[in-house]
Amino acid sequence: MEDQKNNPLHGVTLQMILFHLVDYYGWDVMGQYVKIKCFTNEPSITSSLKFLRKNPWAREKVEQLYLKSLKALARKNEIENERN
Description:
- By secondary structure, this protein is mainly α.
- It has a single domain, classed as Transcription Termination Factor Rho, Rna-binding Domain, Chain A, Domain 1 (Orthogonal Bundle).
- The protein is built from five helices and no strands.
- It is globular.
- The N and C termini lie far apart (42 Å).
């Protein structure tokens, strides 16, 4: 089995990713980054999970957006730590 310690998605469920993204960006911004109806037309975690599980191309885009948000949070934390 491949070592997963450097994989930021290891152990993170799709549901966890969606909750994070909704909290971090909100549905409107998510719909701008990933143009899928489950983010723009009556969005919900349930409908998004159903769609993303059936469409690997969309899931990949959502995972990339998640990774982007983690990098942005890390940068923000670094800046705040440098100021203190």
